[in-house]
């Protein structure tokens, strides 16, 4: 009994603004195009990564967290973090999560990523994609181009292939 009363109640309600005075085709011409079709044309400026404004460019970064948060982070913080140019590790105790924080030249954090579930390979890949320079040794002298990384993105190049010589 209640179900019939509810169905009659809903059947009597009209969502149309004209109370049924227009035909379906007239209604769609008048209201449908404006309300149903949503145009999302956004004109975005395509940024060249080397021509970003200074406040938007990444100039450095660090990992923030505890060395006991992951199995690989303790070794990374002791051995490998010094090999990445403009990158460091900040200890936070007690902390169960790891974050990468990227900052601009003024030190304002522009982006932070939670990396608690990442492995060492994913971290290295992310740093290379962001343009951080990985040195071969701690005492390696860097060129001017390498010193500006990641502010000016460092592009890794494969070593030249050796030509085969015939004897």
From TrEMBL:
Domain of life assignment: Eukaryota
Query: Which keywords does this chain's UniProt record carry?
Result: Signal
- Keyword Kinase found: no
Question: So which residues are the signal peptide here?
Answer: 1-17
* Residues annotated as transmembrane: none
- Database matches in InterPro entries: Sep15/SelM_sf, Thioredoxin-like_sf
Does this entry carry the keyword Signal? yes
Q: What is this protein called?
A: Oidioi.mRNA.OKI2018_I69.PAR.g9899.t1.cds
Q: Which organism is it from?
A: Oikopleura dioica (Tunicate)
């Amino acid at each position: 009994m209640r179900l019939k009363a509810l169905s009659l109640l809903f059947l009597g309600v009209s969502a149309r603004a004209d109370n049924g005075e227009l035909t379906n085709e007239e209604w769609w011409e008048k209201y449908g195009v404006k309300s149903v079709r949503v145009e999302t044309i956004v004109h975005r400026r395509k940024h060249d990564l080397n021509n970003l404004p200074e406040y938007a460019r990444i100039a450095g970064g660090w990992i923030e967290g505890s060395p006991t948060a992951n199995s690989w982070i303790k070794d990374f913080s002791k051995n490998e973090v010094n090999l990445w140019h403009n990158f460091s590790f900040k200890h936070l105790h007690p902390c169960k999560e790891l974050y990468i924080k990227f900052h601009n030249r003024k030190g304002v954090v522009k982006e932070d990523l939670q990396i608690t579930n990442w492995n060492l390979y994913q971290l290295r890949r992310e740093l290379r994609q962001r343009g951080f320079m990985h040195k071969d040794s701690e005492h390696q002298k860097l060129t001017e181009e390498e010193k500006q990384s990641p502010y000016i993105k460092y592009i890794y190049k494969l070593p030249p292939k050796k030509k085969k010589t015939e004897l």
